[in-house]
Amino acid sequence: MAKTIKWEKDFDRVLTLARAENKMVLLDFFNPL
Amino acid sequence: MGAVTYPNEKVVELIEKYLVPIQVLFDSQPLATKFNIQWTPTVITLDEEGKEHHRTIGFLAPEEFIPSLMLGVAKCHFDREKFGKAIPMLEEILKDHPKSDAAPEAVYMRGVALYKSTHKADPLKDAYKRLLAEYPSSEWTKRAKPYSLL
To answer: The CATH number of B9-149 is which of 1.25.40.10, 1.10.10.10, 3.40.630.30, 1.10.630.10?
Structure first.
């Protein structure tokens, strides 16, 4: 099964994860239409 | 992006390695206002404190999106003077994606990062020479032209 991006939805949680994992943040604004 | 770029295996691997991804609707508040979102797709690279370092607007295919993401990560390090982390990432862009739109900026940023970490002018002159030779029509070549006088 192909790997997919595990998108987060909560901005504060993302910053917490980024600090813990020593990573940067990818913030994608999208339009579903 | 959702149909072509994000399902790409190499894109998934790169994001997994360097980034925590978050996807929100274009009008999601307070983020849309905070980051002044006027069009989609808008993809922003932030550091772990939420500060913006790189932004792209519009569709990018995987072969352009991957080096753009790498440039974003490198700029996060560069802006915080972590040149030891920025330079290898910039060199990886130039090694693996030399034909990408991100490459000329990577040459420029690498030159500046080397200058700022060594305080020697040679990396700036070398960056201009490389830009002139490999990317003569790039805006980054024009921006680096003064370094030819150093």
So the answer is: 1.25.40.10
